[in-house]
Write a structure and sequence with these properties.
By secondary structure, this protein is of the alpha+beta class. The protein is built from three helices and five strands. Helices cover about 40% and strands about 30% of the residues. This is NlpE C-terminal OB domain-containing protein.
Length: about 150
C-alpha cells in the first residue's frame, strides 16, 4: 500500500512538473521567437565578422611560405633582417637557413655591418630571444631565393 501511494504521488508530481514546463503557443511566445531570431541574426553577423578576422590572423602553413624580401646584415654574432614591405626589423632565428644566410653574407659583404638585399622563403614566428629570454617575432628562413649585394630595397 505504501509503495502504491508513493507511485501515485510521483505520477502526480511528474504530471504537475510537465504541465508547469509546457509552452503554451500564444502570441507572447511568438514575440519571444521574433526577438530570439533577431538576436540570432546579430550573433550570426558577429560570427561572420569573427571568421573573417580569424582567417586574416591564421598563421601561414609551413608548405605555403611566402617569399620575403629584405635587407640582411650580420655583425658581432647578431643577425638582423629589415622587411622591405613593412620596414620592420627582425632578428633571424638560428633555425632553418641561418648559417647559409650568414655564410653567403660574409662572402658578399664589402664592409662590416653592410646590408645585403635578400629574398627568402620563410615566415615570421615567435621565438625566445637569446639576449633577453623574451619571446620576440623572428624571421625563420627555409629557402634562399636570391641575394643581391645592394644596401637598399629599391
Amino acid at each position: 500500500m505504501n509503495n502504491l501511494l508513493f507511485k501515485i504521488i510521483a505520477i502526480i508530481a511528474a504530471t504537475l512538473f510537465l504541465l508547469g514546463c509546457s509552452d503554451d503557443p500564444k502570441k507572447p511566445q511568438q514575440a519571444e521567437t521574433t526577438e530570439t531570431t533577431s538576436e540570432q541574426s546579430q550573433a550570426d553577423t558577429v560570427t561572420e565578422q569573427e571568421q573573417v578576422m580569424l582567417q586574416e590572423m591564421i598563421p601561414m602553413e609551413p608548405n605555403e611560405q611566402n617569399i620575403i624580401k629584405g635587407l640582411y646584415s650580420y655583425h658581432n654574432g647578431k643577425t638582423t633582417f629589415i622587411d622591405c614591405s613593412t620596414n620592420t626589423q627582425y632578428t633571424v632565428s638560428q633555425e632553418g637557413l641561418a648559417s647559409e644566410l650568414r655564410n653567403t653574407y660574409i662572402a658578399l659583404r664589402e664592409a662590416p655591418q653592410q646590408k645585403v638585399l635578400v629574398e627568402v622563403k620563410g615566415e615570421y614566428d615567435e621565438r625566445t630571444s637569446p639576449e633577453t629570454d623574451d619571446d620576440i617575432e623572428m624571421l625563420i628562413a627555409s629557402e634562399l631565393v636570391s641575394v643581391v649585394n645592394k644596401g637598399s630595397c629599391q
